[in-house]
Amino acid sequence: MKHNRHSASSALRRRARKIRIVLMDVDGVLTDGKIFVCAEQGGKVADIKLFHAHDGVGLKLAKQMGLFTGVISGRHSPATAKRAIELGIDFVFQGQESKLLAYQQVLKQTGATDEEVCYIGDDLPDLPLLRRVGLAVSVPNAAVEAKKNAHYITDRPGGDGAVREVIELIFKAKGQWREAVATFMIHAG
Amino acid sequence: MKHNRHSASSALRRRARKIRIVLMDVDGVLTDGKIFVCAEQGGKVADIKLFHAHDGVGLKLAKQMGLFTGVISGRHSPATAKRAIELGIDFVFQGQESKLLAYQQVLKQTGATDEEVCYIGDDLPDLPLLRRVGLAVSVPNAAVEAKKNAHYITDRPGGDGAVREVIELIFKAKGQWREAVATFMIHAG
Amino acid sequence: MKHNRHSASSALRRRARKIRIVLMDVDGVLTDGKIFVCAEQGGKVADIKLFHAHDGVGLKLAKQMGLFTGVISGRHSPATAKRAIELGIDFVFQGQESKLLAYQQVLKQTGATDEEVCYIGDDLPDLPLLRRVGLAVSVPNAAVEAKKNAHYITDRPGGDGAVREVIELIFKAKGQWREAVATFMIHAG
Amino acid sequence: MKHNRHSASSALRRRARKIRIVLMDVDGVLTDGKIFVCAEQGGKVADIKLFHAHDGVGLKLAKQMGLFTGVISGRHSPATAKRAIELGIDFVFQGQESKLLAYQQVLKQTGATDEEVCYIGDDLPDLPLLRRVGLAVSVPNAAVEAKKNAHYITDRPGGDGAVREVIELIFKAKGQWREAVATFMIHAG
Predict the structure, then answer these.
(1) Count of domains in chain D?
(2) Phi and psi dihedrals of C118, rounded to 5?
(3) pLDDT per residue as tens digits for the range C126-157
(4) Inter-chain CB proximity C79 and B38 less than 8 Å
(5) Which is it for strands D21-24 and D68-72: parallel, antiparallel or unpaired?
(6) How far apart are CA C42 and CA C32, in angstroms?
(7) Distance of CA C164 to CAs B86, C133, C141, C169, Å?
(8) Most buried of A43, A96, B128, D145 (most Cβ within 10 A)?
(9) Spatial distance between the Cα atoms of C30 and C136, rounded to a whole number of angstroms
(10) Which residues pair with D120 in a beta bridge?
């Protein structure tokens, strides 16, 4: 059974409380799945991706509060690399034919177990990871096979706050969301 | 009568089972119909198109499972050419005043008959092909004349998974969809 | 009273039958109103606009069937100029503080009267023209003041087929739509 | 209690009547929150933002009618700077870790009090300002914490007319909207 934000069951909260690492696909999850293809006369190549500000605030917050974050993408995009640096994302794997190899490397480097990992994916290449992690998340605009393998489907679409929603869910399950919000009020006097 | 994904009639499945070649328009089908026009100071020209990741996975899958794929577009776009190479699309016709000439060339090169071809189109220039192929498909955002000439109208809009939906429909009709999905689980062991 | 496509009243059809010239605003009408602002390091300037393929087919058709077409925009955009050339648009006025001066020039050059002009606009700067032309059209995403001054509000939003819908309405009122569609079937033999 | 455009309560109108300065966040307010990340081969950097024409007309109108306008953004974007010049925006603060410092500078320069300021924000970094100003506004696509701290939530989404709606609300409360619209009819004779 899938759960949404408003009815996060105790089973879902139990899964969320164990999470130390949030990994995610890029296209369709951190974006709405639209791929910009740019061709310039003279052969120069520009790469464009469209991310969401709310996800950015969420990912910075995740890092600040001690979670590891990472992206594992089948495509290679310099724009994704640039955004990852901006947000302090810990693991950046791109051009991955098999996402499982990247995943195993993350486990090795962090000493984490499957149940300490949340993975957010939206399509067939994400199936192996969705079936394995402790908290498997998909998005409303995902392929049906990805949704079937998720413990949670976000309300917000990919590229429009889905990742932020997951980070919020994890911190709420851990009882840390108030603390997270409070960091923004420091200068408010 | 039009059919949607959930009620694919036996007549529609019969049409889909015969398909060896999937041809499609670009603007409005592989994209949402929005045309990026870019002008740069100094006269340089950049060309941008916005495709969808789900369609990309679908077209790669189609090729891998032995279908021919192709695009026939009235416009000329270097970005489309680039995307076609990325996805291993077999036939790329652009700047075509008459789509029928390109179509006839595909038949000749492949030895296929009309009923072995699926064509996806959304506007008036697509009418000649929609009226001729074995499986004529249109999209929700199409001109009414294109919809009237289609055997099937996708649930997903152009540029947002319509092509993926058609490829899925064909493989399901052929009883090959499970096999297609399984190729993504190889490394999942 | 406003009319939509499905209930085009005889009063609306009477207005539409007289039209020889279709003029329109750009932002919000030929686009969805989103303004791309691009800044490049080194001071180079790129200009991007997002048009719709269906409007493009409609505007080419309008020209082919003998209507004059034109854009009158408050902003100056090289991308609009480029698109106008592509589509054979007859009148291109940009950077117009007062749209009325451009309008009067069109009347002078064509010898047309107010009632032979259709104008499509979506915001306050369009009010003077909407109040004057024979067929004033606005879009669902328009400012309420523009809608109040329109004889017709399109079903399709600006940048997503609104202009195409108006051209279709005019040709249907003139009894020429079948003929227009038929031009696409010439090579279908 | 939140109010929408159609039921602007007398309490809301009282707040709006006092406003001399309209300040706003950029991402999610003047845009839909989507962040374009562009990477070009050779290390050149382009910055793109997507604003809305209706907000542009509104901000020009605000200036013309004597309001101060300003943006306070956590990110730094040359495209925002360019748009701000185009629209004659008075205060442009970017790359602000604490928005409160920028806010205090605006108060100092203008001699305004909190209740003479309207601030429009959509996410956690906006909370300190939303809690302080006389008229706190948020958007439908905002984080729930921002909405909870707003006196008014716009009907139109960020990047799609939200700012225009607020400017209209203020001028209507002041009884100046008719006058504002009339400025566009000057050349209409």
Answers:
(1) 1
(2) -105, 130
(3) 999 999 999 999 999 999 999 999 999 999 99
(4) yes
(5) parallel
(6) 30
(7) 33, 19, 16, 9
(8) B128
(9) 15
(10) D24, D137
- Please report, for the domain that includes residue B48, its CATH number: 3.40.50.1000
Whether B90 is covered by a domain: the verdict is: yes
Helix axis angle, D10-17 to D162-173, nearest 10°: 90
Which residues make Cβ contacts (< 8 Å) with residue D155, sequence separation at least 6? Answer: D4, D5, D140, D165
Max Cα distance, chain A (Å): 57
In a domain, B189, yes or no: no
Three-state secondary structure call for residue D102:
helix
D125 has a chain A CB within 8 A of its CB: yes
Map tokens 């382009």 to a residue.
D46
Those residues with Cβ within 8 angstroms of residue A54's Cβ, 6 or more apart along the chain or in another chain: A160, A161, A164, D28, D33, D123, D143
Q: What ipTM, to 2 d.p.?
A: 0.92
Q: Which residues of B touch A105 (CB under 8 A)?
A: none
pLDDT class of B42 with cuts at 50, 70, 90: low
Domain that holds residue D53: 5-181
Report CA torsion sign: D108, D110, D116, D117: negative
A124–B83: do the CB atoms touch at under 8 Å? no
Contacts A161 to D, Cβ<8 Å: 33
Query: What CA–CA distance (Å, rounded) separates B156 from B154?
Result: 5
Indicate whether D43 belongs to any domain: yes
Task: List Cα–Cα distances, A168 to A14, A54, A67, B54, C106, in angstroms.
Answer: 15, 11, 12, 27, 57
- Report the alpha-carbon distance of residue D149 to residue D159 in Å, rounded: 20
Q: Which pLDDT tens digit goes with each residue over C20-65? A: 999 999 999 999 999 999 987 666 678 999 999 999 999 999 999 9
Name residues whose C-beta falls within 8 Å of residue B41's C-beta, 6 or more positions apart in sequence: C44, C45, C46, C78
Q: What is the pTM assigned to this prediction? A: 0.94
Distance between CA A51 and CA A67 in Å, rounded? 20
In angstroms, rounded to a whole number, what is the distance separating the alpha carbons of residues A158 and B22? Answer: 28
Residue-level length of chain A: 189
Any chains having at least 3 CB pairs less than 8 A from chain D are A, C
